[in-house]
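Per your request, structure below.
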């Protein structure tokens, strides 16, 4: 009988036959930390066809990016994204920067032969998103893949909801109502970070939160929004200029002030291709709400509801049951035959926000290995961008109904 394997031997054995997949990430703040968690974890949880390697992370400040590399688990640090995408040990470029740089980095990375993962929203404008989608389409012919980071698709409960809708459990869809509520801007003295400047963020709550709920609504419904009628508002129009750096949703301001050039809240109704009606609300001024995303779908035969603050659950009503005992019931989404959960814990042991990024990495690795285009694609990201643009156009025109450009 042989000797028991030592940990290094066991890891080497597990990696046998699985070629490395070098990942380079641009940006290392809030989303960079979340993506790093996903890349660090995915190969230790799921049985993957390729082995992700955290090759290099990029940021403008040499000292800060080196510290981030050490903290987040990256082997090397770069201060120029062009140098990162030219590295031979980088196969995938993961873009976690503000929206104003998404298009330039993604198009260059695809032209360099890299696979690309880009955080949402895909771009700051429809024109930028169109260029990115065209570059992704051309790259696909060379065997490259490009995916948008709409991570809420990767919650097991929302993936299960999509499956139930696709199976016809709700019947013909009638209504979708979705809200995404936060309160981190309620304090009018919160400083003017990049998220409050149109030139870097593209839009405010609309792009930051609205992009998520538009994508999630279309994903669950299985069809696109074809027109909207919208209101937007900026409640606090001037804020202290940023003093020093910001971290996540925290920052310090100085005495000078500057103009807020994005929306604080967006409220819009919409129509799906099938004729189903939708309502959307995205705000960073819902006092007391931290990260409250809720979606409900009503169909002729039933309803489904999901709440991010109870992300291991679905609420389901089967409208075909007799009224004497029908009603909404909780589905605890922790079974091993639920989406993604075959690799995690025993039933009843819930997952969290960070696991969505692990699932995102898993799906991308499989797509690369299989030579299949992942979802959501850059074309999906472009369609969301067109909805956001229609919302802005409608709001500028006194809420006139605005069809989505195609």
């Amino acid at each position: 009988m042989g000797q028991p394997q030592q940990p290094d031997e066991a890891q080497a054995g597990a990696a046998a036959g699985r070629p490395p997949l070098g990942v380079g990430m641009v940006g290392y703040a809030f989303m960079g930390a979340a993506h790093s968690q996903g890349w660090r974890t995915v190969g230790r949880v799921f049985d993957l066809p390729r082995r992700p390697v955290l090759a290099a992370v990029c940021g403008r400040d040499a000292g800060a990016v080196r510290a981030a590399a050490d903290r987040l688990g990256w082997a090397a640090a770069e201060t120029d994204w062009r140098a990162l995408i030219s590295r031979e040990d980088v196969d995938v470029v993961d873009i976690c920067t503000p929206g104003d740089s998404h298009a330039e980095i993604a198009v260059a990375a695809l032209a360099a032969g890299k696979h690309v993962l880009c955080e949402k929203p895909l771009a700051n404008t429809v024109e930028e998103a169109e260029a990115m989608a065209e570059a992704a389409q051309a790259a696909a012919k060379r065997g490259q893949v490009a995916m948008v980071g709409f991570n809420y698709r990767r919650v097991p409960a929302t993936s299960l909801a999509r499956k139930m809708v696709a199976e016809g459990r709700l019947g013909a869809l009638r209504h979708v109502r979705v809200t995404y509520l936060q309160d981190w801007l309620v304090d009018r003295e919160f400083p003017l970070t990049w998220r409050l400047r149109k030139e870097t963020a593209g839009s405010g709550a609309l792009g930051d939160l609205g992009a998520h709920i538009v994508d999630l609504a279309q994903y669950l419904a299985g069809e696109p929004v074809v027109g909207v009628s919208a209101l937007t508002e900026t409640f606090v129009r001037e804020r202290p200029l940023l003093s020093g750096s910001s971290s996540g949703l925290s920052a310090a301001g100085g005495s000078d002030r500057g103009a807020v050039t994005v929306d604080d809240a967006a409220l819009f109704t919409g129509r799906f291709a099938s004729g189903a009606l939708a309502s959307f609300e995205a705000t960073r001024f819902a006092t007391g709400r931290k990260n409250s995303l809720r979606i409900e779908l009503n169909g002729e035969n039933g309803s489904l509801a999901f709440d991010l603050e109870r992300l291991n659950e679905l609420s389901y009503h089967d409208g075909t049951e007799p009224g004497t005992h029908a009603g909404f019931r909780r589905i605890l989404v922790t079974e091993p035959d639920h989406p993604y959960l075959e690799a995690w814990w025993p039933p009843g042991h819930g997952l969290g926000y960070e696991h969505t990024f692990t699932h995102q990495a898993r799906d991308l690795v499989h797509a690369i290995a299989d030579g299949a285009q992942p979802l959501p694609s850059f074309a999906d990201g472009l369609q969301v961008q067109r909805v956001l643009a229609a919302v802005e156009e409608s709001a500028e025109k006194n809420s006139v109904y605005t069809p989505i450009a195609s």
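Residues 171 and 300 are 5 Å apart (CA to CA).

Regards,
D.
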